[in-house]
Each structure stands twice: as C-alpha cells, then as structure tokens.
Write a structure and sequence with these properties.
This protein is 38% helix and 15% strand. The protein is α/β, with parallel strands linked by helices. Among the domains are: 12-69 and 416-445, no CATH class; 78-216 and 267-286 and 311-366, TIM Barrel. Strands 10-9-8-7-6-5-4-11-12-13-14 form an 11-stranded mixed sheet. Strands 1-2-3 form a 3-stranded antiparallel sheet, with helices on both faces.
C-alpha cells in the first residue's frame, strides 16, 4: 500500500481499486487526516490533487469549511498527566495463555502511601483546572482481589475531588470471576465503567482463561442488578476461527450485550517473526471484517481498537500515563509494571512509594525521552497517511518485536484504516441510496 508526500493542507491519495475489482490506481481515496475528511476519486482527480500548483480541486476547497480535528492530548509535563492506572496487586487467580504480565506475578500489593500520594498529586490545587482525569483499576493482577483497597481509594478520590473540583471518571478491568452482589452494587453506585475480559464460548474461555460458569453467572447477575458493563476478548491465532461462533453465542445467550471488543494479542514469543506476524494479522483482518457484518445483522457492534482509528488524531500512540504499580513505581505502560520484567527500567519514570517523601518523584529526563516517541521522531512516519491515526505504533511493540516486524505492523494498521474509511463510505451511500450496492456503483462509475 503506497503512501504519498503530504501537501499543505495535508492530503494523501491512497490506491483502493483492488477493493472494487479494478486496477489499484483506478480508484483512490483522497484523505485529509487533520480534518478527518475522505472521499473516492479517480486516477485523474488523484493526479490533480498531488500537483502542488493545483489547490483549487473540489476536495481541497471543501476542507476550508471544516474545523481541524482536536488532537488527543499528550501530557507535555508530568503536571499534565490525565490518565492514571492503579495496579493494586500483582496477584491473579487466572492463568491466561496470552497473559502479558505473567512474568510480574508475585504477592505484592500496592502500599497505601503510593495511591494516596498519587491522588494527592492529581488533585493538588495547581492542577484543579487541568483536563478531567481518568482513574483505572487494572492488572498487574486481578483488581478485585483488592476490592477493600478499591473502596478506600475511591473514597479518598471523592474526598479530594470535593476539595479541588477537578472532574474524574473511574474504570475497572476484571476477569469477572470475583464479582459478588456487594461488588456489583458498589460499581453501579459509583458509576465505575467496568470491562470484563471474557471469551464467550465455554470451550474457549476454559482453555484460554478458565471459570466460564462463574463468569457467565456474574455477567447475568450484573444485568439483573442494572449494572452497565462491557466485554472484551483478546484473540489468539487459535481463537480467531471461533469468532463467528462467539458472535452467535452472544446473540443467543447474552441478548442484553450489544457490543463486543476484540483485540489482537501482543506476543513476540508467538508472533516474533515477520512471517508469523503477517500470517496472524492477515487472519485477524479476514476474520474480523467478515464477523463485523455478521454481528451487525444480529444487532451487535463488533469493535476493535486496531480498526477504530478515525476517532482519534494523535501524535503518539503512547501518551505517557501514570501507571502506579504494586511496587510503588510509576510506569508509562500497564504491560510493563514489575521489576522482574526485562523492560522495566525503560518504562519506569517515577516512584510513588519512596519512604520518607510526601510527594511523587519523577525522573524528568526519562519522562521527556518517553514523550519523544512520536510521529515526528520516526522517519517511516513522515510521509505515511496513517500517522495521525496510528501515532507511530506502540512503544512496547517497538521494543519487544524485531525490526523486521515493524513494516508488517504498519501495513496492518494502514489496511485497517482503509477498510474503516471504505466501510463508512459504504454505510453513508447505502443510507442515502437504499437497496443499491456501493461497490457496484463505484465499479460502474469508473
């Protein structure tokens, strides 16, 4: 998939004829990422767009009436952090086949001083006018093992917010096995946005994670108690062929669940060569794009962050959030959160549990270094049409996969973005032209 040098305003043409049974250059997408604008053009129109002296093309003139999309904020300093993950323990009652934090398993629990200092930092008076902050309880381990601590943390957040006024939201990612009526009612009362990792099918859940019966019962109980929740499923190569059955089972057995989030599994141990990663991404792309249409017919929104790229404009994939670990350190990624993990020293930029100190301590040089990893720092991003949507790929991916895999990941991202644009154009066309085929219309227009 070819890229072209950006114009001013930044406009790209992306060959897409193969999606319509034509020569790839015959149909192209004109794309202006700063405006979130895209449309189909023929080869003649595409050439005109790329002539720097021709700025009167209809597509470019139309951009003048559009606002530039807001940029997803990347904190320029530690005082501007607006995402906080609290990993209250390194303990888990599951043994997931694809677990990214298994190397960090221990009996460690976050000291109270660490989360208190973090909350104090976020709600300091000089930060009351900063962006709303999102607190998330996630792994490390299973957050609900530390449910008493969650209650204390939330109570402290409420107290500090009343003093400061800075808005906040709460999130929780759990395996769903430890939910009780007390926990469910608490989550509902506090409006905690809860996501349950769940493979839907008994045979798949029990093989990949375990405890299908228990999680299944708890999902139904959350519905009965009126507690909103979402579910997500990381899909390994072996699990991907089961996605159509997962969608069918969701419609049959969980009619109150109307969306499912699925994601590729990050595992250099399994997909650590260009050949293996390419085969895995090809399978994910084919399986997901086919299942999306199946799910839509059943009233289910099948979603993946790998494909949901147009809703963001960002200059970095990793926004240097504060991940406070069970050890009291501050990492910028929840997937690197224990001192036993090999990349720990590259991701940790501060500490929340230093004895004898009343505040968080930061390594500002490390924070600055982490924040430099963006689309302006990587040569391959300079002329890439997907750069504002991708943000230069995941920092953890770049530091765990061999260099031969970088291009594979970039190509997958670009395929996903093109598919998303074409799908949106199809939906708009078929809404205004009921009963007509978008693909047939384009084929006949060329």
């Amino acid at each position: 998939m070819s890229d072209t040098s950006p114009l001013e305003p930044e406009v790209y043409t992306i060959p897409a004829g193969e999606y319509f049974g034509h020569d790839n250059e015959a149909v192209q997408i004109a794309y202006a990422p700063l405006y979130g604008a895209y449309t189909l053009v023929d080869s003649k129109e595409a050439r005109a767009l790329l002539e720097t002296s021709t700025h009167d093309a209809d597509f470019i003139k139309a951009l003048k009436s559009l606002p530039i999309l807001p940029l997803l904020p990347t904190p320029p300093t530690t005082d501007d952090i607006w995402e906080v993950d609290l990993l209250l323990n390194n303990i888990c009652n599951f043994h997931c086949s694809y677990c990214y934090s298994a190397a960090g398993r221990s009996n460690k629990r976050m000291p109270d001083a660490a989360w208190k200092k973090t909350v104090d930092f976020i709600f300091a008076q000089d930060k009351k006018d900063k962006l709303p902050v999102r607190f998330s309880f996630s792994g490390g381990g299973e957050p609900l093992i530390s449910f008493p601590e969650i209650r204390r943390v939330v109570s402290y957040i409420e107290q500090k917010q009343q003093e400061n006024g800075r808005p906040y939201t709460l999130g929780l990612v759990t395996n769903g096995s430890l939910l009780t009526d007390e926990i469910i009612e608490y989550i509902r009362e506090k409006k905690i946005q809860i996501v349950v990792s769940f493979e839907v099918l008994p045979e798949l859940q029990n093989r990949e994670r375990g405890s299908w019966d228990k999680v299944n019962a708890n999902l139904h109980r959350m519905h009965e108690l009126g507690c909103p929740f979402g579910i997500r499923s990381p899909l390994t190569e072996d699990a991907l062929p089961h996605l159509p059955a997962m969608v069918d089972r969701l419609a049959e057995q969980f009619p109150f669940i109307h969306s499912l989030v699925v994601e590729p599994v990050h595992s250099p141990e399994w997909y650590g060569s260009a050949e293996k990663l390419s085969a895995y991404f090809d399978l994910f792309f084919k399986t997901y794009t086919e299942a999306v249409e199946q799910a839509a017919k059943l009233g289910i929104a099948l979603v993946s962050n790998a494909f949901s790229l147009l809703k963001y404009r960002r200059k970095a994939k990793c926004m240097c959030k504060a991940v406070v670990t069970a050890e009291g350190s501050i990492s910028h990624c929840a997937r690197v959160a224990a001192s036993t993990e090999p990349l720990y020293d590259r991701f940790v930029y501060g500490h929340a549990g230093t004895p004898g100190t009343a505040a968080l301590s930061f390594n500002q040089d490390m924070f600055t270094f982490i924040n430099k990893r963006n689309i302006f720092d990587q040569p391959e991003c300079v002329h890439c049409f997907a750069r504002w949507n991708c943000g230069g790929d995941c920092s953890l991916f770049r530091q765990t996969y061999p260099a031969e895999c970088y291009e594979v990941s970039c190509d997958f991202t670009k395929r996903c973005l093109v598919w998303e644009m074409l799908r949106n154009m199809r939906k708009r066309f078929e809404y205004t032209n009921p009963g007509q085929s978008f693909e047939d219309y384009v084929r006949c227009s060329i």
